[in-house]
Amino acid sequence: MFLDYFALVVLVFVLLVCFYGVIAIHDIPYEISVKRNHPHQDAIHIAGWVSLFTLHVLWPFLWIWATLYREDRGWGMVGKDHDRISQLEQQLARMELLMQQRPSASSSATAAAAEQPTADKEV
């Protein structure tokens, strides 16, 4: 008789641990997104609950979605050329600033080039 009650208590305990374990596991992608300061934290959390009701079919995709974003590099789609591109953008900004500071030099050079006769005009 004691073993019957003991088995019942063990069975209830195991079912409760499994139930709460599944709920804790479904929340892992949300915790990852909170740690990474993901812009879609709420959507990942809601999708985690939806995944709970669909037997965790969506859960691997939520894990991937949560781990793709990092605050320091964004979505991670930036290649090795990111530094080179930023250098070129800075160089272009400097050149535009120089062009704005000396508009008369460029217009006088254009006017002088227009006044010079070319070989096509002489023939």
- The coarse overall form would be rod-shaped
Tell me about the biggest sheet?
A: none
Domain unit count: 1
- Report the span from N to C terminus: 121 Å
- SSE arrangement, N to C: HHHHHHH
Helical segment tally? 7
Query: What percent of the residues sit in helical stretches (DSSP H or I)?
Result: over 70%
Compute the gyration radius: what is it? 33 Å
Protein name: DUF3302 domain-containing protein
Transmembrane segments: 6-25, 46-66
Region (Disordered): 100-123
Biased composition (Low complexity): 104-114
Present the secondary structure layout.
Blueprint: H1 2-26, H2 28-35, H3 41-53, H4 59-68, H5 82-101, H6 103-115, H7 119-122
What keyword list fits this structure?
membrane; mainly alpha; DUF3302 domain-containing protein; 0% strand; single chain; transmembrane helix; UCP028770
Task: Write a structural description.
The protein has 123 residues and is mainly α. The protein has one domain (10-99). The protein contains seven helices and no strands. It has helices at 2-26, 28-35, 41-53, 59-68, 82-101, 103-115, 119-122. Helix 2 (28-35) runs parallel beside helix 4 and helix 3 (41-53) packs antiparallel against helix 4 (59-68). The model has no long low-confidence stretch (mean pLDDT 84). The chain crosses the membrane at residues 6-25, 46-66. Residues 100-123 are annotated as: Disordered. Residues 104-114 have a biased composition (Low complexity). Keywords: Membrane, Transmembrane, Transmembrane helix. InterPro entries: UCP028770 (IPR011223).
Summarize the structure.
With 123 residues, this protein is mainly alpha-helical. It has helices at residues 2-26, 28-35, 41-53, 59-68, 82-101, 103-115, 119-122.
